[in-house]
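Appendix B, record 7
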Amino acid sequence: GNVTSSEQESVTRSLSLGRCFLDARVKRGLMISDVAQAIKFSPRQIEAIESDDFDKLPGTTFVRGFIRSYAKFLRF
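Structure tokens (predicted):
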């Protein structure tokens, strides 16, 4: 069938890594500050991950470790 651009956009958005983290955090009723405190990262870094703004984070190795920590915290 025909997929409208808004449907396509929502599929793309739902598949983004940051969106997965955001949805999982919200489902658990957690605030960014809760996550920041638990995994020892700044709220700004968590916001950057959730908005897929990886350029705001230092180095690929750091980002990989950060995502791993966040995923483990959310029990992905």
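Remarks on this record: The chain has a mean pLDDT of 85. DSSP finds five helices and no strands in the chain.
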